[in-house]
């Protein structure tokens, strides 16, 4: 139903011009990147930094946090160096000058941050990370019911007011068929499972 890209951000006072320069700096001096370890929600942040590590061949000193808020607080204060932040929060922090947005881990630049390149433009096309939303039902749901719900969602996501409200949160509607959703979810599970496996990430 919708895609929300992540944005790697660093302290606002850090003298970094763009993501490419940041990757070079990481190669020279490993960064302290928040990487939470407890339940599934915190695994997302750890996997994001691991994806960048694998794609760019850089090193991180991952610092476990209990949630995004203390992690962002420490990045703002310079106690940690880099954090992948969902665009909903990242845009506000960047516009307020509290954090510096390096790039958008999505396919397109954000209207709210037009000068911030995508990770592909910054030389890291493999670093794509969305928080995505889908509508699911119980196993065995009748096909006609699935079709009616899908059509209702398609209509809703085409409403100008809905599109505008999502855009205000840097969220892009992604209408599609049930088959397309199933294929996308399967691909995401496979992609991130490989990142977790290669990074030997353990949930504690």
Could you tell me the CATH topology label of the largest domain.
Answer: D-Maltodextrin-Binding Protein, domain 2
Q: Unreliable runs, pLDDT <50, ≥5 residues?
A: none
Which term fits the overall shape? globular
CATH superfamily descriptor of the largest domain: Periplasmic binding protein-like II
Number of strands: 7
SSE-based structural type? alpha+beta
Secondary structure elements and their pairing?
Elements: E1 2-11, H1 19-28, E2 31-34, H2 40-56, E3 60-63, H3 68-77, E4 83-86, H4 87-95, E5 99-101, E6 130-133, H5 143-157, H6 160-168, E7 172-173, H7 178-199
Parallel strand pairs: 2-3
Antiparallel strand pairs: 1-4, 1-5, 1-6, 1-7
Helix pairs in contact: 2-7
Relevant terms:
2 domains, D-Maltodextrin-Binding Protein, domain 2, five-stranded antiparallel β-sheet, 204 residues, globular, two-stranded parallel sheet, 7 strands, 45% helix, alpha+beta
Q: What does the model show?
A:
- This protein is an alpha+beta fold and 204 residues long.
- It has helices spanning 19-28, 40-56, 68-77, 87-95, 143-157, 160-168, 178-199; strands at 2-11, 31-34, 60-63, 83-86, 99-101, 130-133, 172-173.
- It has two domains: 2-129 and 190-199, Periplasmic binding protein-like II (D-Maltodextrin-Binding Protein, domain 2, 3-Layer(aba) Sandwich), CATH 3.40.190.10; 132-183, no CATH class.
- Helix content is 45%, strand content 15%.
- It has seven helices and seven strands, in the order E-H-E-H-E-H-E-H-E-E-H-H-E-H.
- The chain is globular.
How would you briefly describe this protein structure?
The protein has helices at 19-28, 40-56, 68-77, 87-95, 143-157, 160-168, 178-199; strands at 2-11, 31-34, 60-63, 83-86, 99-101, 130-133, 172-173.
């Amino acid at each position: 139903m919708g895609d929300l890209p992540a944005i790697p951000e660093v302290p606002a006072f850090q003298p970094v011009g763009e993501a490419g320069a940041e990757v070079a700096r990481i190669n020279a001096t490993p960064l302290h990147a928040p990487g939470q370890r407890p339940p599934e929600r915190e695994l997302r942040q750890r996997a994001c930094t691991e994806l960048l590590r694998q794609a760019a061949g850089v090193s991180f000193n991952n610092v476990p946090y209990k949630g995004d808020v203390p992690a962002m607080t420490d990045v703002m204060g310079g106690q940690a160096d880099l954090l992948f932040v969902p665009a909903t929060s990242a845009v506000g922090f960047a516009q307020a000058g509290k954090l510096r947005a390096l790039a958008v881990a999505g396919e397109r630049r954000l209207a709210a941050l037009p000068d911030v390149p995508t990770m592909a433009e910054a030389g890291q096309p493999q670093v794509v990370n969305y928080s995505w939303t889908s509508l699911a039902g119980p196993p065995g749901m009748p096909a006609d019911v699935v079709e009616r719900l899908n059509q209702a969602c398609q209509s809703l996501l085409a409403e100008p007011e809905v599109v505008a409200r999502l855009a205000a949160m840097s969220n892009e509607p992604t209408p599609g068929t049930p088959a397309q959703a199933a294929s996308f979810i399967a691909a995401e599970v496979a992609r991130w499972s490989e990142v977790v496996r290669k990074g030997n990430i353990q949930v504690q």
